[in-house]
Design goal:
This protein is α/β, with parallel strands linked by helices. It folds into two domains: 166 residues, Type I PLP-dependent aspartate aminotransferase-like (Major domain) (Aspartate Aminotransferase, domain 2), CATH 3.40.640; 101 residues, Aspartate Aminotransferase, domain 1, CATH 3.90.1150. 35% of the residues lie in helices and 16% in strands. It is built from eight helices and ten strands. The protein has a four-stranded parallel sheet with strand order 2-1-3-4, with helices on both faces. The protein has a four-stranded antiparallel sheet with strand order 7-8-10-9, covered by helices on one side. Helix 6 packs parallel to helix 8. 34% of the residues are buried.
Length: 294
């Protein structure tokens, strides 16, 4: 999507400072190559009021703004952004909202129909558990002609959604496996999966928040996040916590060192067990109380 929209020198693309790195890199390359402008705004961490996020986006729109970009779920913190309302803003201003749904699809319970958006892009290897290299692209029918495919398609396909599949020879095995992943997802049920992931997040987060020096950069308000959360032990370097967890306990986490916050991204999945989370909590609790052992 980010490469399929016509932009010209001086045109602005508006997003947040927390958008996905690959998306930011893509638009920065377009800025170098085509002279467009990437404009980034700050949103609260965590963002407890969805309409404040909408207001911050709309206030930053100028006559030069030609596209909005937003993650449905921010990969750094698990924050869920209000896509329906942001898309309504984009429509009012006559510009597209490019939606990155990579961490949202098959993670929490929603449907594209309910979102009422004009496009939606997602990889399927994350929360759907499909093979790498598989993805989903939704484009509202009347918007298809406005977007160019990454690889050229014949003119007769300008209004055909299949033009976005013009990538040469398809890896059939990967695509066939999507059906198996969907069957597994539907067998669990989106609502049950959502509830399970929230339960696992709250299980560890609420225990660690009993420490005064533990800060959560993710909202615990229902509907504003799901399974992913970002946690910081104040006074202890995030990279050191990550390294200690892995080197001494073989617990995998991701260090988030953002200009506006730092913390470990913790993302249990449906198969994560409570004893595994207990191990994580025990280690983090000791660090919070006594620091990392020498």
């Amino acid at each position: 999507m980010q490469l399929g929209i016509d932009l010209h020198r001086g045109d602005e693309v508006l997003t947040t400072t927390q958008d996905y790195g690959r998306m930011i890199t893509t638009f920065r390359q377009r800025a170098r190559r085509e002279g467009i402008v990437l404009k980034q705004i700050k949103i609260p961490v965590p963002a407890e009021d969805p309409m404040e996020v909408v207001r911050l986006y709309e206030e930053a729109i100028t006559p030069n703004t030609k596209a909005l970009l937003a993650c449905h779920m921010i990969n750094l913190t698990g924050q869920i952004l209000p896509m329906t309302e942001l898309n309504a803003v984009a429509r009012r201003h006559g510009i597209p909202l490019i939606i990155d749904g990579a961490h949202a699809l098959a993670h929490f319970d929603f449907s594209l129909a309910e979102l009422d958006v004009d496009n939606y892009s997602a990889s399927l290897h994350k929360w759907l558990f499909a093979p790498h290299g598989t993805g989903l692209l939704y484009v509202r029918r009347e918007k298809i002609p406005e977007i160019y495919p990454l690889m050229a398609a014949p003119e007769r396909m300008d209004s055909d959604i299949r033009k976005f599949e013009e990538i040469g020879t398809h890896p059939a095995a990967n695509y066939l496996a999507i059906g198996e992943a969907l069957t597994f997802h539907q067998g669990i049920g989106p609502k049950r999966k959502d509830e399970r992931l929230v339960y696992l997040r709250n299980y560890w987060a609420e225990k660690l928040l009993e420490n005064d020096n533990v800060r959560l950069h993710t909202s615990l308000t229902p509907g504003l996040a799901c399974g992913i959360a970002c946690v910081e032990i104040e006074g202890v370097a995030t990279n050191d916590v990550r390294d200690h967890l892995w080197n001494d306990h073989r617990i995998i986490s991701v260090a988030i060192n953002h200009a506006e916050f730092t913390g470990l991204r913790v993302s249990p999945s449906v198969y994560t067990t409570l004893p595994e989370l207990d191990r994580f909590v025990d280690v983090m609790d000791r660090i919070a109380k006594r620091g990392i052992p020498a």
